Amino acid sequence: MIESNRSSEIADLLRGRIKTMNAGDKLPGVRTLSATLHASAGTVSAALAELAAHGLVRSEPGRGTFVAEVGPNVDPDFAWQSQALGSKRVDEGRASRLGGYGGGGKIPLSWGYLASELQPNDDIRRITARAAKSPHAWTMTDPTGLPELRRVIAADFRADPDDVLVVSGGQQALVSVLRTLAEPGATVLTESPTYPGAIIAAQSAGLRLASVPSDGGGVRVDALADALERTRARVVYLQPNFANPSGAVLTAERRLEVVELARRHGAFLVEDDWSRHLCLEGVTPAPLSALDPDGHIVTIVTLSKPVSPGMRVGAVIARGPAGRRLRASRTADDLCVAPLMQEAAVSLLTSNAWPRHLKRIRPELIARRDALVSSLRAAMPELRIPIVPRGGLHLWARLPDGVDSTAVCAAADTAGVLVGDGRHFFVDEPPASFLRFSFGAATPAQIDEGVRRLSAVI
């Protein structure tokens, strides 16, 4: 029997004994219980810790373990909290799905990170072990980030290192940027469909959201122009490259036009460039910031997507007063990103392991993308796939009319398959039913089996 099961067994046995004892009665010592129950001292201690966590016993150092006084079993009343908290800001359903795909033993057909076997785990372990020996790994750093890391990130975007702010991943970057660039109650425009994390980031900042339709070439410029005129919004959130969930890439012509719109309306464009290192075909287009001399573009980058979900390192690139405000507000969050994580990040990005990793995952992701497309078309020809993405990690598919995406996802979950509910990618009511698939977290064999199970529930 494994140790954890044995300690739980002993805890259950002691729980029965405690029911026959009075509050304040002393339990036998660990050595006595160890000999009586034929278990190690560590196992007995774990069992007592479990009982203490449930409030059944209390430990007094130097004296022993005693039966705790248990009060009457009264259901707590949290009704007062709803009144004190006021109305909800963040959509709990949408938020719970963002981080809820990491485990559970289900086939991950919707999970926005690389599978473990695609992550550079050996390189990360080696680099992190070496970084841990650095005297700088366990001290405070400048709130803006390690100078070496800022220089490496800046070089990738032809930016000034002083304009780079290191943060704990792309999601924190979104929250910080939207909170800083817009006042509570202001309107933020976003392409539709869009990343749910951007929606909840705006909600948490107390902002209103208005959506702008997009197509295979990215956000529709005519609709964006109308929305800017109508709402007077000063912040626009876009994913120009391999957008989540649609996979669309903003065309070269539209890139020029959206930057010009931002200039004309005195607005900020928040460029979420999460997929820059996940191009599968051709070359990732240059960032929008390359077209902008006047600081309208605020760029977000992350290492969590191309490396691993545990590599919580990202950056915000912003110039002028906006950059200064973002850097000034950094200390209101958590003072700095863990220096050890920053040391590991800069070591990875400047090593031969980084280009080797990107070269290795490209054919792997292409194979998984193609396997997903092939399986879906064979098993469910009624699904419409508007775009076969040339990068990123996601595939967007439209369900037949009359099929409810939420019901499909619930049935798929019961069948052991995780699929993204298209409703979560729209600010307002979706124009049709969609599913978001991902091809980075499952093997081709898992993809085939997951699609087979999914087809059985639709």
Automatic annotation (TrEMBL):
Domain HTH gntR-type positions: 4-70
Keyword vocabulary terms for this entry: DNA-binding, Pyridoxal phosphate, Transcription, Transcription regulation
CDD domains: AAT_like (cd00609), WHTH_GntR (cd07377)
GO molecular function: DNA binding; DNA-binding transcription factor activity; pyridoxal phosphate binding
InterPro entries membership: Aminotransferase_I/II_large (IPR004839), HTH_trans_reg/aminotransferase (IPR051446), PyrdxlP-dep_Trfase (IPR015424), PyrdxlP-dep_Trfase_major (IPR015421), PyrdxlP-dep_Trfase_small (IPR015422), Tscrpt_reg_HTH_GntR (IPR000524), WH-like_DNA-bd_sf (IPR036388), WH_DNA-bd_sf (IPR036390)
PANTHER family in the record: HTH-TYPE TRANSCRIPTIONAL REGULATORY PROTEIN GABR
Stated family: In the C-terminal section; belongs to the class-I pyridoxal-phosphate-dependent aminotransferase family.
Protein name: Putative GntR family transcriptional regulator
